[in-house]
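In response to a reviewer's request, we include the raw inputs and outputs for one of the modeled complexes. The two entities were modeled together in a single run.
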Amino acid sequence: MRIVVPAGGIGGARFLRGLQKELGVGPDSTGEEHSITVIGNTGDDITLFGLRICPDLDTVMYTLGGGIDEEQGWGRADESFTVKRELAAYGMQPTWFGLGDRDTATHIVRSQMMAAGYPLSAVTEALCDRWRPGVRLLPMTDDRVETHVIVDDGSGGQRALHFQEWWIRHRAALPAHRIVGMGAEDAAPAPGVLEAVEQADAVVLPPSNPVVSIGSVLGVPGIREALERTTVVGVSPIIGGAAVRGMADACLQAIGVETTAGAVAEHYGSDLLDGWLVDRADEGTSVRDVAVRSLPLYMSDPESTAAIARAALDLATELKEPRG
Amino acid sequence: MRIVVPAGGIGGARFLRGLQKELGVGPDSTGEEHSITVIGNTGDDITLFGLRICPDLDTVMYTLGGGIDEEQGWGRADESFTVKRELAAYGMQPTWFGLGDRDTATHIVRSQMMAAGYPLSAVTEALCDRWRPGVRLLPMTDDRVETHVIVDDGSGGQRALHFQEWWIRHRAALPAHRIVGMGAEDAAPAPGVLEAVEQADAVVLPPSNPVVSIGSVLGVPGIREALERTTVVGVSPIIGGAAVRGMADACLQAIGVETTAGAVAEHYGSDLLDGWLVDRADEGTSVRDVAVRSLPLYMSDPESTAAIARAALDLATELKEPRG
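The model returned the following structure tokens for the whole complex.
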């Protein structure tokens, strides 16, 4: 099967690992029977200290390439923070970003290649030469799209924060009025993105953040339209009315969507979604024109995650077949 | 006294520490009776991985600011090399430069400020806000001057290497035909350099490399001329026919100067030099129109270095007084 997975960071990466396990796809066995193309969210990307940082692409790359800090889910294993401490000693701002030493090297390589004129997609491919994630990792776009969060400015007006500042520095605690993808309307899908979607046997939306991860990918003109023409099965990131992994509720609230498995599916819409997997806790959820299945959705280990991936692929296959 | 010291890296920095000790000048006691202005060599500067690196300025800053690796004489104490290892894992070149993690932060701050349009002199001042070296540290120029070394290319021709590549990667072992300061003829002294020289009570040339450190400073149009109008005492970097600290002989050879205390003084010339300190081993050295004194010149500890500094200042004072 040719599978396409639009993905954010931690949730997407963990789902992908389960999908790889289920398909027996990895660095040493790609491209035979099955292939996975990831459309990575770049709306979280930020330039700090002159370094171009792509948190979601890196999380996918490190997770599938065996370099991730397993416990926290992002950043490198055995990471140190000497550069960060020294920058702070010089009074450099910001100090809230968790810039690790190992990670810094990734950003230096990326920044150097981009300064030399390579598009992000080419840079990502070069970085993956080292990490061999066993998937084809494409950024959603080579253009600059930045997710900004509109919050109160404390004196009756509003101000925009870069998503990273809102998410990390303020821990998503400042109520968000709106979440906007700056530059999205002028962005084009990165080379290979639309082709991968067109040739896909199935598209799976992992339990990534539906607003700032999947939503950001869908915001690049052309991607949503291409996805609507193929079979898409989504995995709910909401279980029993709560985000499986922190703070997605703050994002949903900002766009006026209830934190329920059903509301997220309605938000994606039946023109996009063909199937929707919800947790047993949400059994009975129904979404008009979308096939809903319930099963345990906690990605507690690779085995349980593989079972979720299998269910998504099975549902996609079932939905793809001409109805009898 | 107002003292000016053109300086390279390790030798210059160690001499400066002795000078500070002798004068009782430091971070907490600058600018009262005595002041020291350092004109730092920037010919060794290099841009690697998008980072602007100024080895000599940093060696002076770290040494006087208490951050130096005392044993090796350059780089930060308690340094780690995670970024360097990771860059190598990505296949990034070059791998021969000793880029430490702590040091990397310095280069990031510098590169960021330079990208924002600040000249190197302003950047150096900002970095010194943290390190408080107790001297006014000026780069010789805000313009780009790079010391290149001309060597055989192995097929009958010649090629130019950046000084750092020749010095570190090849350990100065490739015979040098010439050493050139690329860009020097178009460079201007950094703000404050000429004023400091004009107002100096004494200029001391520390035992830095006479070719690629002091020579590089003298190569900036206007600096040598200003120094010729003031009282200059030099400390020989050559003791008993050998460089006190490795590889200066390779540089002298490249410019056709013998590795002797006398030859180096002749090379500097009596229009520049008023006094010249040589080691006891070189007692009897005479240089036309230059007052030569001999004393122990090994900078084995701060005390012996302070004694050398004292001798230089005494000789400068003596030479400055109208002869009776």
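As requested, we also summarize the result in words. Chain A has a mean pLDDT of 94. The longest strand of chain A covers residues 146-152.
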